[in-house]
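Q: What structure does this chain adopt?
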Amino acid sequence: MTQTTIEAPPNTQPQQKLMLSVGFVLLHRFTLLPFAAFVDCLRLAADDGDRSRQLRCHWAFMTAEGQDALSSCGAAITPCQPFQPARMFDYLVVIGGVQDGGARLDQQTLRYLCDADRQGIPLIGLCTGVFSLIEAGLMEGRRCCVSWYHHADLRRRFPDVRPVADQLYLDEGDRLSCAGGAAAADLAAYLVERHMGKAWAMKSLHIMLIDDVRKAEAPQPQPVVFSKVADRQVRRAIAILEQHLGQPVSVDELAERLAISRRSLERKFQQTLGVTPQHFARDLRLRYGLWLLHYSRHTITEIGERCGFADTAHFSRHFRKAFNMTPSAMRRQVAEEGATLADPFFLHIEGKALD
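A:
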């Protein structure tokens, strides 16, 4: 296998008082995107401009013996340090790898995390890193944020843990967890703002070309696959609607954000998807409601509110029309059959929305 080597930045001695120090525990075949998003947010907040000196923030990449850390895509982080004293850090970020049945914590890593916990160091499970915290016995009786993609696997392997798959990350004091992917930047910015102030967090995000700070409770993007949507502005409209599932965007506002007229937007939706923007947005919110019924413990009233419906009756009426079942009946079916949301519910959209 050909490996791409990523050189870690040298340990720069701080020139002023550190405001935030983070240790990264990189597990075998760790996921590269959440790691990169998190550490780059720290890097950009640590120094002026893009100079990368560890002035305001400090970070260290660690493996059990200081060996190179191999990511899931084959890129390796080098050099890494052996585990450093946990008291050096404000947080330890555990970044997990591919869950292929062979991913298990080695005893040295297990002891390190447990020792850190005894010292009161907050632990962050990033992406599948939360699986490792669970294996270490450090998540008993707690909730943990996990990607919708890993929700069923976590629930099957660890039935006593309470997975949350309807938001980006969770902060429960000495335990933080994040669904991974680009949400790692949101969590890192949240910590930068806490320790250094909002200006430094926004500086990092703006340089990373992220202009919309997402809160912990923001919904994870849903696995609805849109294919054959050729019109670029319709694709952009869909992306905006997905980002505001709980806060309905009016057609006028949507058209303004796309810099086109309302009439032009409605015509494009009719030509491309066969429905109005209002109809499509409602169907998208219903799909989100379906998702929450499967992957959250919210009440039906709460789900209706999170999906932007005025009241439970309004939500239930449209849900039944779309899925031939009331939300209550769907919730019972999930509980009785242990069903997980499969492709038949989230069909490819090829020029049409729900009937």
